[in-house]
Amino acid sequence: MPMRKLIPLVPLVFVPISIAADQLAWGDTAVFFTSALAIIAVSIWLSTATEKIAVVMGPSIGGLVNAVFGNATQLIVALTALRAGLIDIVRASITGSILCDLLLLLGIAMVAGGLRYKEQSFQSIWMRVNGLSMLLAVVAIALPTLVISTSNIVDASAIRNLSTITAAVLILVYGLTLLFSLKTHSYLYEVGLAEAETESAEEHAHAPKVAFWVIVLLISTIAIAIESELFVGVVEAETAQLALTPLFTGVVLLPFVGDMAGYVTVIRLSLKNKMDLTVATTTGDSLLVALFIAPVLVFVGQAIGQPLDLNFNTFEVSSLTIAVIVANLIGFGGRSNWLDGTLLIATYFILGVAFYYHPA
């Protein structure tokens, strides 16, 4: 096998190393870092598989595939943390994932593509529909926080009921956005004829390998589930030792590990000048987290005896609002360059620093 094909396999060595660190009691620190590196390594393979499958399926379905499996890592990590009772970290990770998708991932894609191409274009319908849907999601997520901040007495059962009803509505809205983009108004998302013909040619070229990449996708998902158990088992103790708050751990650290597949995917796509698929992936990621993953975590938490509500703190809600507004303002025009990406990244960095110094 050529050396260039062997290189991507090298980081996978952290999978057996992390398992050995746990089984041979090398210490929590060793398990923490090796399992995090293992998750990152496997996520790169997961992102490669999703990209190969997405190219065959085209921008609309392909963006959905990238969104679903690109978020598989963070969903598995969140479910594992929820089962372990780390509710504050799980709630913060929802905020962090949305901020990462709208600001950091999209910003990195625009910078990477902007350095190679002077200007890139994409269909603004992605930003209009997904941006408005995200605005609704942020409003819905903010409701429990507003109820608490404007009430003299906080009824925990009322907050749970409000969160449950809100979660059900958000899932319904997500289903309707899929119906809109994939069925009733799919023509709004179609690329030009020339690009469609190119995608068709790529489909025939890659079709024989789809089964292989599906297998890679499944194996990667299983490996991430195993590594997530190891990582979550020590994350609370190790972050406390590093003097990191649960808020910062959930908002910055977990999305950084869980979204590694997204970094690889958006950089690859933007460098190939496939900004339609890039924007579909990043905005689809944030929409999936806000309208589907967060509500699912609410219902799963209730089912396993770890009640998770949508009671985010005021600073989290404010940060989500800022992210949605900035991303929509930059993306509504349907064109991007490296400066647009830099502004998104700068916004994320400033918010990240603020979360680091936030006392709660």
Shape: globular
Q: Mind telling me the C-alpha Rg?
A: 20 Å
Largest β-sheet summary: 2 strands, antiparallel
Unreliable stretches (pLDDT < 50, length at least 5) are: 191-201
> How many runs of DSSP E, i.e. beta strands?
2
The percent range for helix content is: over 70%
* Average of per-residue pLDDT values: 82
Element-by-element helix/strand order: HHHHHEHHHHHHHHEH
Strand proportion, as a percent range, falls in under 5%
Content-based structural category? mainly alpha
Instruction: Write out the strand line-up for the largest beta sheet, numbering strands in chain order.
Output: 1-2
Number of helices: 14
Q: How far is it from the N-terminal to the C-terminal residue, by CA?
A: 51 Å
